[in-house]
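Structure first, sequence second, as always.
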């Protein structure tokens, strides 16, 4: 799970929250995702990659490994660097997941792990609901395609897999598909009936 420095996170929420609030909100979302991963029964290990000491503390608090980077190089670059290390440790499937999906449920993460077993040598992709991005990618190492996370990356990852003859499996998991980037995403999160620490904080901040 790549996580950028908290002070630089969620710039699209600049009109909604102060820099300090954005950093705090980002940390709470990351903590919610780590908490879900920690209790998902089919997840065998969690690695967080980044350059922020505060993120390192969050990872360790939730029993996750922290893989340090000298600086944020971008989601895809940091994920690829971590994958190279993890792939050298064995052949278990690897999932790349975002840190800003606070509504993800442990059962969804277990379903994603099960889909990876079914996919075999193929890849599992989780499409983002809003911007055509990729909110999850699972594969058996080595990494079969170049990573290109960001808006419209779901189509890019599909094209890369098709060009290489790699089978594509799509997993539609609502909690994982909805990341929080824009003011309207914050309003959506605040309107949920339940959630974790990020949800509770947003509801208080929304008055």
């Amino acid at each position: 799970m790549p996580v950028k420095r908290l002070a630089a996170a969620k710039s699209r929420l600049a009109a909604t929250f102060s820099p300090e609030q954005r950093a705090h909100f980002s940390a709470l979302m990351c903590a919610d995702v780590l908490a879900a991963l920690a209790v998902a029964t089919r997840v065998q290990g969690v690695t967080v990659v980044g350059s922020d000491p505060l993120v390192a503390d969050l990872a360790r608090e939730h029993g996750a490994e922290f893989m340090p980077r000298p600086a944020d190089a971008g989601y895809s670059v940091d994920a690829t660097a971590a994958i190279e290390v993890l792939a050298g440790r064995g052949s278990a499937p690897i999932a790349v997941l975002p840190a800003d999906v606070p509504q993800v449920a442990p059962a969804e993460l277990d379903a994603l792990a099960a889909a990876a077993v079914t996919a075999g040598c193929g890849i599992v992709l989780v499409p983002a609901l809003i911007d055509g991005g990729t909110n999850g990618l699972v594969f058996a190492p080595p990494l079969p395609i170049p990573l290109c996370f960001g808006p419209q990356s779901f189509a890019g990852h599909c094209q890369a897999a098709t060009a290489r003859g790699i089978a594509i499996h799509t997993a539609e998991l609502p909690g994982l598909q909805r990341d929080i980037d824009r003011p309207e995403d914050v309003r959506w999160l605040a309107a949920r009936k339940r959630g974790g620490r990020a949800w509770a904080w947003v509801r208080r901040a929304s008055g």
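Margin note: The chain has one domain: 6-202.
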